[in-house]
Amino acid sequence: MKFMKLGSRPDTFYTSEDLRCVSSEVSSDYTIEISGSRYHLHKFPLLSKCLRLQRMCSESPESNQLPDFPGGVEAFELCAKYCYGMTITISAYNIVAARCAAEYLQMSEEVEKGNLVYKLEVFLNTCILNGWRDSIVTLHTTKAFPLWSEDLAITSRCIEAIASKVLSHPSKVSLSHSHSRRVRDDDTSSNRAAAASRGWWAEDIAELGIDLYWRTMIAIKSGGKVPSSLIGDALRVYASKWLPSLQRNRKQVGKKEDSDSDSESDVSSKHRLLLESIISLLPAEKAAVSCSFLLKLLKAANILNASSSSKMELARRVALQLEEATVSDLLIPPTSYKSEMLYDVDVVATILEQFMILGQTSPPTSPLRGKKGMMDRRQRSRSAENIDLEFQESRRSSSASHSSKLKVAKLVDGYLQQIARDAHKNLNKSERKRICRVLDCKKLSMEACMHAAQNEMLPLRVVVQVLFYEQARAAAATNNGEVKMTELPSNIKALLAAHNIDPSNPSAAAFSTTTSMAGPEDQWSVSGLKSPKSKLSGTLRSKLAEDEEIDERFMNQGGGRTPSRFKAFCAIPGRPKKMFSKFLSINRNSNDKN
């Protein structure tokens, strides 16, 4: 890093009891107090370079205090030593404090030509701001003097210098020694150019506080030369450095929420501001950041109780690329750790709703018409090849949209399996039966049916319904009058055989008749399954009847009160259930076509 030395005399400042003095043959004649520290100095060297001290001695000789001195005693001593001609060293770490102190003391050209203010300005403009690392360090130190730095335009000059270096070719940037430790001295110009494409600047500016970082990123984005993907990478680096762990468990969050400490509240507010600032910096382009990163920000937004507008913006951006997400990405903790739900289902439903809204907007098959005249004539004179090309583009866009819906439908299948396994694993038989009433076995995908047939926690009646519907679909798949059966796994065949159900000769008609004539609630009755045409054995019919009797006894106990765990499930609003059913329908239809 660059530095500047001023003066040639040795440092003769010393401390005597509670005073700071200068070793000299001449006795001190001027006492001054800075931030509670007293100095016994000499008028001549100080007043000859400090206009403020001259005016203070002439206007109020008894006054010897300098209130609100920027930089405190360290900055004052630096200026005082300069007045005495002692050697001082200026670098990126102390130039802001020295510049603010010199401005406070009015060490300008009005008092002496080539005074301290002039020398500091020359060093700042010609050396500090030309270096990459020096500019970042200087900008970082301005946070201790925000008002002074803004008035003296130090902050804005540092931001402009950093942004110009990011926008320029790396070969034109003067990198400091600290950065060259990452970019070795033997690197060629081609290697440095490759470093620019990787966003070599992201880690360095991540050291800035959120206010200065936000302003710097705005300046970089306004240049229009940095790709949005590099902007997204820089935001990811900054978020991973400053945001709290996004995988904290509910107990840790609970301790934070229960705490009445003002310091922890301040930390939470700081993180919330940081998160919302990062969200405001996200590029508008779809592929600028990954869907996984967006969902991590959404998890942090829930943990930190971010504003609803920030959450909605993240949900909208996630919906644009939801097909890239995984089930673990969607497992978002609730806003409050006291919630009976382990995961926030509402926010996932909001994401799915936004995804469906985007999917309903079909791509145009032709360009939009403009004003009448030449545009209309050009529309009419388009060749058949151009029309065919636009039609093909439309079909490709529609196919891509359908493919995304299929991926999201499978994602929702996995998500529902995960949240059901973690939220309802301790329910009793009657509670499980009531929860399963929301299932529509006709719309389950093949994977869901396979899972249901092997899930020991599902009520037996659900398993039987699933198997019957799969048999009916298999029997309906005919080719030239021959039955085209779907091969079932051996364990499912064994389960069917155990209940006297022949997989190769299903009784689909009898089953479809009993279910189609009954409402959703009546489909749970065993009366339809007790028909002589049914392939169920007497043991299975008695088992189902016994389950129903237990169910009725359970409802009669306690005045029909509902268990708390079931209440937790029912607390899921109707809108998420409808949204999930839409995706299950999409997945089911795709399997039928296949």
From TrEMBL:
Residues 525-539 have a biased composition (Low complexity). Signal peptide: none annotated. The keyword Coiled coil does not apply. Residues 199-473 form the NPH3 domain. Pathway: Protein modification; protein ubiquitination. Belongs to the NPH3 family. PANTHER family: OS12G0117600 PROTEIN. This is NPH3 domain-containing protein.
